[in-house]
Design a protein that fits this description.
141 residues; alpha+beta; four-stranded antiparallel β-sheet; 37% helix; globular; binds adenosine-3',5'-cyclic-monophosphate
Length: 141
């Protein structure tokens, strides 16, 4: 299990949290938890209601819809935001493909954080746009 400072450093290097100072990052770290997964574990299941926002601290995950891999996410990338934003079921499965550690915060903490620090939304929107462009340019099956 990583120490608080390691998680603070990892979160601070993630675009989404880059706008927060050390003190604010510490508050975020203390209000979330780190979870470990084995390769093959499903972290987020399509169709279930979302209760958390996740950042990959270490390892690798795939975003899957049926047989299709929509994206591969690694250290510094996030997932699980869509369900928290639109209050709809999870749009895809997210599965660990390597032993993976994630830092997760609850919907409540995520919402409070975004309301208190609206500057966090811009990097998230940039990532949204990037993922949408990638989805648009990938061949449909
Ligand atoms: P959510 O719908 O809460 O749960 C599944 C997550 O997979 C979703 O949030 C996004 O974080 C992520 N996701 C869904 N579709 C894509 C995509 N096309 N590219 C990258 N990530 C995605």
């Amino acid at each position: 299990m990583a120490g608080t400072q390691e998680v603070i450093n990892a979160l601070g290097s993630i675009g989404f949290f880059a706008g927060l100072n050390q003190k604010q990052l510490k508050i975020v770290v203390e209000s979330g938890k780190e979870l470990s997964y084995k390769a093959g574990d499903t972290i987020v299941e399509e169709g279930t209601m979302g209760v958390g926002f996740y950042m990959v601290v270490d390892g690798k995950v795939e975003v899957r819809k049926g047989n299709k891999v929509l994206a591969t996410l690694a250290k510094g990338q996030f997932f699980g935001e869509m369900s928290l934003i639109d209050e709809q079921p999870r749009s895809a499965d997210v599965v660990a493909v390597l032993p993976t550690r994630c830092f997760t915060i609850s919907t409540w903490v995520f919402t409070a954080l975004v309301k208190e620090h609206p500057e966090l939304v811009l990097p998230m929107l940039k990532e949204f746009a990037k993922r949408l462009r990638a989805a648009q340019s990938s061949p449909t099956s």
